[in-house]
Amino acid sequence: MMEYKRTRNDLLKLVRVKRLVEYGKSVLRKKTVLLTATLLSTFLNYERDIDNENAIISIAMKRIKFAIAFDGVQSVLSASNLIINNLSLNFKTENLIGTFIPSLLLKDMVVKRDYGELSTSIRLEEASSKFEQLFRELIIDVNLYIRIRKLSAAISRTKGRYNALNKKLLPSLNLQERLISEFLENAERQELFNTRKLLE
User: Fold this and answer.
1) pTM of the model
2) Contacts of 135 (CB under 8 A, 6+ apart)
3) Predicted confidence (pLDDT) per residue in 22-33, tens digit
4) Which helix (H) or strand (E) holds 182?
């Protein structure tokens, strides 16, 4: 923290620095509000998607149990070994007032089922489709989870910077401004008093 001399010139410098710090504080406050609103929105989406996934898991498990009961464990295992997933992901970064939030997006996913339709039951096909849907949903959730972690960390850092300005730097600058102003006022009064004495 810079110490200012008890001069009018340094008082003006201090006032300029204080204005800059107050501007920085307002930017950090706005940034915290924006990041927090984005975090809440992301969290609500994540919560909704988790509920959706739980419903998909429930249906997928019922269908796979049904397939095992009718087609047997060996048929289900053989069919699952013949399923191949090919997917491509996109990565992008969003800039929220200087905070870079990565995004993971499913660009394309092709599920190749090498088992024959005639040799595989509709029960296995339905179970496989449900697990494919679940896999797509999980990729969306991974993206939301990454955003939540990054946003939470960014909010914590931004609040730390805001508190450093608001609770440490600004009070210190205000104190120095008051002390210099009081010193200069006292010096002016003393000078005025001395001038009057000389004129008497």
Assistant:
1) 0.72
2) 85, 109
3) 999 999 999 999
4) helix 170-199
